[in-house]
Design a protein that fits this description.
two-stranded antiparallel ribbon; two-stranded antiparallel sheet; alpha+beta; single chain
């Protein structure tokens, strides 16, 4: 998901790669990133609908992956994603240290 970007509508860019400079505010110093965006393909949700309704046996992997990335985006803004799971930061007074800088988080 960190290398993929999905949009509902086509972006106003050509099929060639477009390079942008993105600045994110940081603690004391802004961080500057160079980002390249290029159109790779289009994802058809119609083929996923056909598979779910049993009209075809082929499950479109690109549609499943894109929906997974989209559905996980919002929870990852509030929780810490680890693999396929999300974990909530422990509240003050409820931390569970294991020693050596490790602690238990419940998710």
């Amino acid at each position: 998901g960190r290398r993929n970007m999905y949009t509902r509508e086509p972006l106003p860019i050509s099929k060639e790669s477009v390079e942008l400079e993105v600045t994110l505010p940081g603690e004391g110093k802004d961080r500057v990133f160079k980002v390249a965006i290029r159109h790779v393909s289009e994802v058809s949700l119609f083929s996923l609908e056909e598979a779910l309704e049993g009209r075809t046996q082929r499950i479109p992997n690109d549609a499943v992956v894109s929906l997974d990335v989209i559905m996980r985006h919002l929870p990852s803004m509030s929780y810490t994603p680890v693999g396929r799971s999300f974990f909530q930061n422990p509240e003050d007074g409820y931390d569970n240290p294991l020693g050596g800088g490790r602690e238990v988080w419940f998710g």
